[in-house]
Design a protein that fits this description.
603 residues, alpha+beta, Dipeptide-binding Protein, domain 1, 24 strands, globular
Length: 603
């Protein structure tokens, strides 16, 4: 159902025109974290060539704000960290791009009249890991899917449910769903789009060779889990096309929200994929059904143009979109303020207040299903002890993180599902008692690694490591590119990982828990046992429940089990911020500007 985004997890960065350190491309992304201890830690980004950093906090100062714009906490004495930057190799092209970006960023703000007519200029924080909805996991990928692909059902302009490729759907029991496709659908190359394409895509989604990295919302399709595990043929799953315009899904159990899940199920062009299995997502081979098609692409840039074959082409106002990957938040902000961007997401969180003053209404804030949390590797002997996990959670000053790193624009939380109950303050005494009971005292300190991604999140990791050092936990911080962090976490090569996911436009708070459920994208910490089995049972029961109030009750009961075991450590519920130029129209106050077909350009 496409990626919702492990963003950096959330996520997934660089400069316009390909400015980004060279690395292998196309893998999944994840973050590594740095280490602090009282801060004995080292920060690794790649390999050698150390760069000495000054002490991050003034010696002997408690609860002081650091000077400058780093936004780093200054609560404890930190020894100099070592930053390994050898992997940051800049080619001549990268260096030129950096120079160009700096020149653009230093320019005075341009007027709307200087902007290219009919072109929406967008900067995103992370490089998409794939334009194939069955492979990508990054939030940046999910954002581009919404422009390049067409799902069975759609997000309405207000974030609700609307017709997509299907103009209607029905079910008598919530277990067998029938979708009727719009008549006359075609792919961008003029080939008819039929129900057989939907069936083929569904089977491809559960084929172990080509399937979803995250089965997620597709879990309920009959035989889907067995097929993905290689225990059944993809052709046996519960999807069929009795005619060219009708698709029937048979589920293992009733799922009242199944049409909602279909908002991120994107049928694919079988003829185009089979003609170029490994390169069908390249611009020269692109065939799609979305509001835009991929006209061209370079290392960190994509140009999209309006698709005249889109089933609702008359509703698409903007003729072309240029998408640049600009990993550095400060650079994105400078480019926007210089008038070279119309949309840019994820401004520097510690500068939100400052930017609100400087750019006023052009800084947009949205309620968003975004959670920052610590992922825990339960396979590590120390972390298999619930007392250790609880101690780590109790040591973290969440309010400090929200204030220092998000300018108060994030909510400290101990829960996954948003709650009005305030997060409790750090409790160091209880944390130390729990660690001692688990066998970790001054003579036998607990040593852990903390992975994070580069690009700003490492500063948050430094503060967390400092919090943990106050209960005697020594942390090694490992910061890498998102792709490398994803690979490390997938391989189980981590103790703790500073993670973040964004549920995109899914507004139901209960959807926040789904990534941690069976086949969820965040279910990779190795939490097992009877409590986990009870948690999974509640999650499955909730998904099958049509009554909204009863479904919410079940999700909250499942969350209680997750948190009682401290299977993860929730930290912050974040808001989504976008910088939006005056020339962009159609942005609604309650919905992030992710559906570019609904936007317009003034002037």
């Amino acid at each position: 159902m496409g990626a919702e985004g492990q963003a950096g997890p959330l996520q997934r960065g660089g400069e316009p025109g390909g400015l980004r350190p060279a690395r292998a491309r196309g893998a999944r992304a994840r973050r590594r974290d740095r280490r602090d201890g009282t801060c004995r830690g080292r920060l690794f980004l790649g390999a050698p060539r150390p760069l000495r950093l000054p002490s991050l906090r003034p010696a002997g100062r408690e609860d002081a704000r650091l000077p400058g714009r780093l936004g780093l906490p200054a609560r404890a004495r930190l020894h100099p960290a070592r930053l390994d930057v050898s992997r940051f190799e800049l080619t001549r092209r990268h260096a030129l791009a950096l120079t160009a970006a700096g020149a653009l960023a230093s320019c005075a703000r341009r007027s709307a009249a200087d902007a290219p007519e009919g072109l929406l200029r967008v900067a995103i924080a992370n490089e998409p890991d794939s334009l194939d909805p069955l492979k990508g996991q990054f939030a940046s990928s999910a954002l581009l899917y919404k422009q390049l692909h067409a799902p069975l059902t759609e997000y309405s302009p207000t974030g609700g449910l609307a017709p997509g490729l299907a103009d209607g759907w029905r079910s008598r029991d919530g277990q067998v769903w029938t979708f009727r496709l719009n008549p006359g659908l075609v792919w961008s190359d003029g080939t008819p789009l039929t129900a057989q394409d939907v069936v083929w895509t569904a089977r491809r989604a559960v084929d172990p060779r080509t399937g979803f990295a995250d089965l997620g919302d597709f879990f309920a399709v009959e035989n889907a889990k067995a097929a993905l595990a290689g225990e059944a043929a993809p052709e046996t799953i519960g999807v069929e096309a009795p005619d060219l315009h009708t698709v029937i899904f048979r589920l293992d159990q009733p799922v009242g929200l199944f049409p909602v899940f279909m908002r991120e199920f994107y049928p694919l062009p079988r003829h185009a994929v089979e003609a170029n299995p490994d390169r069908w997502t390249r611009a020269e081979n692109w065939v799609g059904a979305g509001p835009y098609v991929l006209e061209s692409q370079s290392a960190l840039s994509y140009r999209l143009v309006r698709n005249p074959s889109f089933h609702a082409a008359s509703s698409v106002s903007i003729p072309a979109v240029r998408v640049e990957v600009v990993e550095d938040a400060a650079t994105r902000t400078r480019l926007f303020r210089a008038g070279d961007l119309d949309l840019a997401d994820q401004p520097p969180p510690e500068q939100i207040g400052f930017l609100k003053e400087q750019i006023g209404e052009r800084m947009k804030s949205f309620e968003a299903p975004i959670l920052s949390y610590l992922k825990i590797n339960h396979a590590r002997p120390a972390l298999a002890d619930v007392r250790v996990r609880q101690a780590l959670s109790l040591a973290i000053d969440r309010a400090f993180l929200a204030d220092q790193f998000f300018d108060g624009e994030a909510s400290p939380t101990e829960t996954v599902i948003p709650s009005e109950a305030p997060a409790a303050p750090a409790d160091l005494d209880t944390a130390r008692t729990l660690l001692a009971a688990a066998g970790y005292e001054s003579g036998t300190p607990l040593r852990l690694s903390l992975r994070t991604t580069s690009g700003g999140r490492e500063r948050l990791a430094v503060a967390i490591a400092d919090d943990l050092s106050r209960i005697g936990v020594e942390i090694e911080l490992l910061a890498t590119y998102p792709v490398d962090m994803f690979q490390a976490v997938d391989a189980g090569e981590f103790d703790l990982a500073l993670s973040r996911f964004d549920r995109g436009l899914k507004s139901d708070p209960n959807f926040m828990l789904q990534p941690f459920g069976p086949e969820g994208s965040a279910d990779d910490g190795g939490w097992r046992g009877p409590v986990r089995e009870a948690f999974d049972a509640l999650m499955n029961q909730a998904r099958a429940t049509i009554n909204a109030e009863m479904r919410s009750t079940l999700y909250h009961e499942a969350e209680r089990l997750l948190l009682a075991q401290q299977a993860i450590i929730p930290l912050l519920h974040e808001r989504a911020f976008w910088m939006v130029s005056d020339r962009v129209t159609g942005v609604r106050g309650e919905v992030q500007p992710m559906l570019w077909r609904d936007l317009g350009l003034a002037g």
